[in-house]
């Protein structure tokens, strides 16, 4: 059984580690977003970006996948839109998601 002190220390450790994971994931998403090109299939995008954080389908059979980018307090989605044919129609990386710098502010 965990004591109150042990539980508090575990909670503090988890809180300190969470932002580091978010920054690393953001950097990888930004770096990978630059590799996604119009005309790629959903499978090709999944190999590059991994599973999307969110997915929205439209009535016209198009789909938009989103991935997180930013710090723990300031996130902006990276959006990849697929046409009805399942191919990338457009890529919207967050403005600062160039992959050249790691996000800060966590």
Automatic annotation (TrEMBL):
Lineage: superkingdom: Bacteria
Record carries keyword Membrane: yes
Annotated ranges, domain Outer membrane protein assembly factor BamE: 28-90
Gene Ontology CC entries for this record: outer membrane
Keywords noted in UniProt: Lipoprotein, Membrane, Signal
Pfam families associated with the record: BamE
InterPro entries cross-referenced by the UniProt entry: BamE-like, BamE_dom
Signal peptide (UniProt feature, chain positions): 1-23
Protein name listed in UniProt: Outer membrane protein assembly factor BamE, lipoprotein component of the BamABCDE complex
């Amino acid at each position: 059984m965990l004591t109150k002190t042990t539980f508090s220390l575990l909670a503090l450790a988890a809180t300190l580690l969470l932002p580091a994971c978010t920054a690393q994931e953001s950097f990888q998403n930004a770096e990978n977003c630059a590799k996604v090109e119009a005309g790629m299939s959903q499978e090709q995008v999944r190999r590059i970006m991994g599973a999307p954080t969110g997915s929205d389908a439209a009535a016209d059979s198009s789909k938009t996948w989103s991935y997180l980018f930013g710090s723990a307090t300031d996130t902006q989605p990276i959006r990849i839109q697929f046409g009805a044919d399942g191919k990338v129609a457009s890529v919207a990386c967050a403005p600062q998601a160039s992959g050249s710098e790691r996000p800060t502010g966590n």
